[in-house]
Amino acid sequence: MRDAAEDDSDSPPSQMSEDDPGGGGGGGDRWEPDLRGGNGGGGRWAPPDQVLENVLESVLEFLTAARDRNAASLVCRSWYRAEAQTRRELFIGNCYAVSPRRAVERFGGLRSVVLKGKPRFADFSLVPYGWGAYVSPWVAALGPAYPRLERICLKRMTVSDDDLALVAKSFPLFRELALVCCDGFSTLGLAVIAERCRHLRMLDLIEDYLEDEDDELVDWISKFPESNTSLESLVFDCVSVPFNFDALEALVARSPALRRLRVNHHVSVEQLRRLMARAPQLTHFGTGAFRSEAAPGGGLSVTELATSFAASKSITCLSGFRDVNPEYLPAIYPVCAKLTSLNFSFASLTAEELKPVIRNCINLRTFWVLDTVGDEGLRAVADTCSDLRELRVFPLDASEDSEGSVSDVGLQAISEGCRKLESILYFCQRMTNAAVIAMSKNCPDLVVFRLCIMGRHRPDWITGEPMDDGFGAIVMNCKKLTRLSVSGLLTDKAFAYIGKYGKLIKTLSVAFAGNSDMSLQYIFEGCTKLQKLETDYEGL
Question: Per the record, which residues fall in region Disordered (predicted)?
Answer without folding.
Answer: 1-48
